[in-house]
Amino acid sequence: MGFLDPLKGFGVTFGMMFKKVATEKYPEVKKVTAPRYHGKHQLNRHPDGLEKCVGCELCAWACPADAIFVEGGDNTDEERYSPGERYGADYQINYLRCIGCGLCIEACPTRSLTMTNEHELANDNRQVLIFTKEDLLAPLLPGMEMPPHPMRLGETEQDYYVKGPELAKRAQEEAK
């Protein structure tokens, strides 16, 4: 052990002392995340406002951290939430467990579950970090309301998927 060894150990420290400090103004100026960043989950909607989630629970089965809970429900003629026979009646994601792997996104057959770029999910209250369906559901577009009739975009489910997008667009244009 030599006499100058302690100074060699502090070489990085002394080298950084004379460099310009790079300060980020984080809360005021937020960095733009990468386009494919895995942030907060979002439950998407069809163009007419109906939910895409059919309550199949495949996302919950694919989650290695067991962070997703889904309970499916049956649509009725009086209450219709999705174009199919079923919908996600209860949907929860526990962000205390979520590891952001994206396997739930890959498992979703209807592309109803996606991940946004929102990354500010920290909180000091554990209960707030369990997101419910209302927290995750994509907002309705301005001027859009839930459809008044259960299958207003077609007589059958197949009509909904084939004719639905063009009829929804026409209905939005008429509403303007």
TrEMBL record:
Quaternary assembly: NDH-1 is composed of 14 different subunits. Subunits NuoA, H, J, K, L, M, N constitute the membrane sector of the complex.
Cofactor note: Binds 2 [4Fe-4S] clusters per subunit.
Cofactor(s) it depends on: [4Fe-4S] cluster
Catalytic activity, EC: 7.1.1.-
Pfam families in the record: Fer4_7
Catalytic EC class: translocase
Organism in which the protein naturally occurs: Kibdelosporangium phytohabitans
The family this protein is said to belong to: Belongs to the complex I 23 kDa subunit family.
Record-linked InterPro entries: 4Fe4S_Fe-S-bd, 4Fe4S_Fe_S_CS, NADH_quinone_OxRdtase_chainI
Record key words, sorted: 4Fe-4S, Cell membrane, Iron, Iron-sulfur, Membrane, Metal-binding, NAD, Quinone, Repeat, Translocase, Ubiquinone
Lineage, uppermost ranks: Bacteria, Bacillati, Actinomycetota, Actinomycetes, Pseudonocardiales
Cellular-component GO terms for this entry: plasma membrane
Record GO biological process: aerobic respiration
Catalytic activity as recorded in UniProt: a quinone + NADH + 5 H(+)(in) = a quinol + NAD(+) + 4 H(+)(out)
Domain 4Fe-4S ferredoxin-type: 43-73, 89-118
Matching Gene3D superfamilies: 3.30.70.3270
Functional summary from the UniProt entry: NDH-1 shuttles electrons from NADH, via FMN and iron-sulfur (Fe-S) centers, to quinones in the respiratory chain. The immediate electron acceptor for the enzyme in this species is believed to be ubiquinone. Couples the redox reaction to proton translocation (for every two electrons transferred, four hydrogen ions are translocated across the cytoplasmic membrane), and thus conserves the redox energy in a proton gradient.
Residues reported in the UniProt entry to bind [4Fe-4S] cluster 2: C63, C98, C101, C104
Keyword Repeat appears in the UniProt entry: yes
Membrane topology: Peripheral membrane protein
Entry's Gene Ontology molecular function annotations: 4 iron, 4 sulfur cluster binding; iron ion binding; NADH dehydrogenase (quinone) (non-electrogenic) activity; quinone binding
Binding site for [4Fe-4S] cluster 1: C53, C56, C59, C108
Name recorded for this polypeptide: NADH-quinone oxidoreductase subunit I
Subcellular localization(s) per the UniProt record: Cell membrane
